[in-house]
Design brief:
alpha/beta, D-Maltodextrin-Binding Protein, domain 2, 6 helices, 27% helix, 25% strand, disordered N terminus, SBP_3_CS, Arginine ABC transporter substrate-binding protein
Length: 181
Amino acid sequence: MSLSASAAQTIRFATEASYPPFELVDANNQIVGFDVDLANALCKEIDATCTFTNQAFDSLIPGLKFRRFDAVMAGMDITPEREKQVLFSTPYYDNSALFVGQQGKFTSIDQLKGKKSGRAERHHPQKFITDKHPEITTVPYDSYQNAKLDLQNGRIDAVFGDTAVVTEWLKSNPKLAAVGR
């Protein structure tokens, strides 16, 4: 991102605040997280003010193209399709993925054969699970939060998600555990 304070006194950022620890809404209804901290540091460096808007993930690129905001700070994988539409910064976080299930129910990925695993459609790990583990039935979700709710309520057996996100779940929910780690 190349901006100067004279070009933009206020930089309008958009994100989907449902991807902790990177973007989330706190108890005070404020958008917070690693990406917000990074955006604020960038704004401080160029003496600009940041504002943040919570948007549905699928509306981030269209909103940027229609200039509803100036930049997006979100856990967004760089894909050829997206690169045709917008410019990306150099990646600043390398993420991995893992399965999470009910504590004590599964100890290996092999035990998920024939089971239902949720995955967030927006993230690249979905390709890994469908390519490398076709024996696991995948259930697409629009967000990790909805997948987590279905996991907690027994509607699916596991969730395949970004390690940073599901690790946050494990910290706050002792009934969940990593599978095959």
